[in-house]
Write a structure and sequence with these properties.
Length: 134
């Protein structure tokens, strides 16, 4: 598994799970890499910061008493939004993209590319350019 790029969602405080243009540039490169390697798969790992985790915990407590209350999971929504962009805007097959939530304490999404090895069922690491959002 090779780390591709990290996307920061810290810039837009009103829409903290939105995929912005800087993130799209990173995801466009991932889409190109996936299109070049039809057997490759992407893994998206999203995190949320401590404040967002506290908001989610409070909402979960409210949801216990009010069954129709909607809890906002920032990390999960970020991962879904990144996958949605790759699938709907870039035409990548959804079955090639896995999403997960991390244990970090920031507002980033890490993207990984997994390529199967030839003559083997194991995966190998592929050296690709890594872009890091500032």
């Amino acid at each position: 598994m090779q780390a591709l790029c990290s996307i920061s969602f810290a810039r837009d405080s009103k829409r903290p799970t939105r995929v912005d243009n800087e993130a799209k540039a990173c995801l466009d490169q991932i889409a190109i890499d996936l299109k070049k390697s039809p057997d490759a798969k992407a893994v998206i790992v999203a995190d949320s910061n401590e404040k967002e985790k506290q908001i989610t915990a409070k909402q979960e407590k409210i949801a216990v008493r009010h069954r129709h209350f909607k809890v906002k999971y920032f990390d999960q929504q970020r991962a879904v939004n990144v996958k949605d962009y790759l699938v709907n805007d870039q035409g990548i097959d959804a079955s090639r993209i896995s999403v997960a939530t991390g244990t970090g304490n920031d507002e980033n999404v890490q993207n990984y590319l997994v390529l199967p090895m030839l003559r083997s069922k194991k995966t190998c690491r592929v050296p690709l350019r890594s872009k890091r959002a500032q």
